[in-house]
Amino acid sequence: xxxxxxxxxxxxxxxxxxxxxxxxxxxxxxxxxxxxxxxxxxxxxxxxxxxxxxxxxxxxxxxxxxxxxxxxxxxxxxxxxxxxxxxxxxxxxxxxxxxxxxxxxxxxxxxxxxxxxxxxxxxxxxxxxxxxxxxxxxxxxxxxxxxxxxxxxxxxxxxxxxxxxxxxxxxxxxxxxxxxxxxxxxxxxxxxxxxxxxxxxxxxxxxxxxxxxxxxxxxxxxxxxxxxxxxxxxxxxxxxxxxxxxxxxxxxxxxxxxxxxxxxxxxxxxxxxxxxxxxxxxxxxxxxxxxxxxxxxxxxxxxxxxxxxxxxxxxxxxxxxxxxxxxxxxxxxxxxxxxxxxxxxxxxxxxxx
Amino acid sequence: xxxxxxxxxxxxxxxxxxxxxxxxxxxxxxxxxxxxxxxxxxxxxxxxxxxxxxxxxxxxxxxxxxxxxxxxxxxxxxxxxxxxxxxxxxxxxxxxxxxxxxxxxxxxxxxxxxxxxxxxxxxxxxxxxxxxxxxxxxxxxxxxxxxxxxxxxxxxxxxxxxxxxxxxxxxxxxxxxxxxxxxx
Lengths: 353, 184
Hints:
A: mainly alpha; two-stranded antiparallel sheet; 67% helix; B: alpha+beta; Alpha-Beta Plaits; 3-stranded antiparallel sheet
């Protein structure tokens, strides 16, 4: 029995549970952070009644969601109506499996990689799951049997298709630089130059396109057209109540957390911090791993802050502006980015080697 | 034409190539919102910290006592007559021997009622009163679910024997200090 608790299998299960819990916890406190950031940006105080500085507010919100009356409309497709939020939640939680949270740690002689699974098509996996995420919204919107919900769902899917393209193209340029689809490999590459060889240096335009698309994919302002209250009441979740609505809102925050992690991994060096090689040579390896995990989370939190900062700054796009930005600006730009990257690689290979 | 220093001329020039990416505008907006993070919120946290009313505020009526603690009202009815909303009713009674400490003059109001739902807080009763007995104080009629509770009798109107605290001016910084003190 004692051997089981130091086996690689046990640590893998532990890591899965830990990632799951931390994802949920961060999503929970993102709702608090969102309200607090909205408040400070608008010169307000924000939630401060539940516990010191209101840090128990997410628990209060959750309790409220669970206690609300659960309404399933009579004319809805009941199976799909329940499937919608479940699918949104499921796909949101699946993405974090391939993200490397830190270098390996050694516990009782067992080397534990801080990545749930290092599949060699990590980026493709992320893309596949993220684009599945729109099914939750689509199914929920359609099953509600409500014109506004359907409009929200249609908007969500067309927005997803438009921005998925530009996102994929911006990633191609990144892959040309890194030469690998494995997230672990990409992060390891970025540890060169004393942990400062971040891909943002080679792909500033690609990062900009990727970030704009990530905003669109997570349905965050200024791209929150599927749920815009002013036009569509609540969009795809108009008919939802109680915890099913909570699941939709929650999955949005999880998506935000995961896409922040993906952005940090792909463009900002993942868990690498400056002089990580010096620290690795002089300090305890586990200590460096802990520092690296802290760095990763710091980067993720900065991105989550940017997500919120943008939301409370920019007004929502009009639908035609959204489509024009996606098809006429971002896609040509990302193709241009591919050409520039290719030209740059050729130049470097022919001049400096 | 620039009429004030704060007004800004409307700018309708066609967007340049850089501007049409929206990026300069977005960054400008984000800089503005970022600056607001460091501003202090002017919030007064109400139930704990209360903002005092202005000294000329016309709030709930108060029936004053004189310097010996006797009620000043003589139930002359001028306030009820002056009242445009007809919110005031009263019944007069004669002071009995031995009640000199309670009522200032021979006649007093045995019953004095103001209907707070009718009252428009114009302050004409205050102006009509020849005895300086009724004043509009610096408090508000509290909310309630039951209409009958809004007919305020003498129990609610007559000034307590110990007078309330003096009006003081409080500034924004003091509210924050008050809140910090309460939190400890």
